[in-house]
Amino acid sequence: MLVEDQKLIEKHAKPAGLDVKVGWTKFAGGNVMNDALLSNSLQFAFGGVGPLVTAKDRIALPAVEVSIQAVTPEMAAEKAFGEGQQSRLDPLTVSMPHADAQTALPSGASEHNAHFSSPPFQYQQLEQPDSWKDLFFPNVHGLSGS
Predict the structure, then answer these.
(1) Is the pTM of this model over 0.70?
(2) Residues 6+ apart with CB under 8 A from 17
(3) DSSP single-letter state for residue 14
(4) Among the four residues 11, 29, 55, 111, which has the most C-beta atoms within 10 Å?
(5) Which range (36-45, 61-70, 102-111, 117-126) has the least confidence?
(6) For residues 89 and 41, is the Cβ–Cβ distance under 8 A?
């Protein structure tokens, strides 16, 4: 790649008084690149339009597809979009520990803008005026709840 071969980042950083160390990594796909960007493991990336578009809206879950926090939005998606549509939100999910997601969400330090959590995090989120209470676990499962 031209930027890497000609050390263009280092070349343009030096006159600005920045001493940067640049590391290069090749990814198998845009989803892995997006996860690296979202976790602050990567500062910028070169890729196609597809990964850039999907990086904007992400849902943080402790474990994608296998946790109850992953199953709940799948149930909500099937309710909202119809039978067989349970996986419609899956491309928007990212694995992230509850504490990290809870801290990053209100600070804007991460690209995820939703978080399916468990106590005590879900109770803290329910106290925030802009939380998505319609997707609170009891509401999705047809139980009484706030």
Answers:
(1) no
(2) none
(3) G
(4) 55
(5) 102-111
(6) no
